[in-house]
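Support case: fe (iii) ion complex. Customer-provided input:
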Amino acid sequence: LMVYTGAPQNTRRKAIEELRVEEGWELMKANGMDEIVIHAPYIINLANTVKPETYELAVEFLEKEIDRTAAMGSKVLILHPGAHVGAGEEAGIKRIIEGLNTVLTADTPVNIALETMAGKGSEVGGRFEQLRAIIDRVQLQAHVGVCLDTCHVWDAGYDIAGDLDGVLAEFDRVIGLGRLHAVHLNNSLNPCGNHKDRHAKLRDGCIPPEALVRVTQHPALAGLPFILETPNDDAGYAQEIAWLRTVRD
Ligand code: FE
Ligand code: FE
Ligand code: ZN
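Agent response - structure generated as follows:
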């Protein structure tokens, strides 16, 4: 299960005591789920060097989000690395590192999983090398992992349909498969390399559906939580999960 601790578009959050954590876990268990990951809101931008208050808000919010993640019984907080908003990739990466080094302490009880991004606009994280550059300069590297989003890597130019083995080998060489904490399983509305980040339903996008099935079956990804971020209502998600189960058997 993946949840946001509130609306993904804003930073208004309820107190931890009001999050109904125990009730949530009971529901999860009743539905055969035993792992939860948290996604930080989209507007958190650690890479912003242009507006200091955006960066400061990001650091402040992340510190609290780490507490909420732990309180919810999760070990993984997924974070979009950020967008440099024109200051350049190097400046953005430097700021992200500074932010992570501020929020992570030796006893931080969770890992931050940087998400692979589509490389839309000034987004950082569209290339595996950028994530590596961040991890390299974080002091507490054991606390930093990665979440692989199939729509995003496809949009970034990694051909997971034509050469999944090659893409995962490159991920392993640059970042290390051991850093992977989760997979976001999405199709894309756009062709490979288009840098658009528009998610599509599993069977209704530019990635051949059988390629997404191969992602779920790849031995390098076995045991990881797979999360759908496809444009669906509850019934639509249920259908996609049922479809995945039939084609995998
Ligand atoms: Fe995300
Ligand atoms: Fe995602
Ligand atoms: Zn996306």
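Residues 162 and 211 are 8 Å apart (CA to CA).

Case will auto-close in a few days if no follow-up is received.
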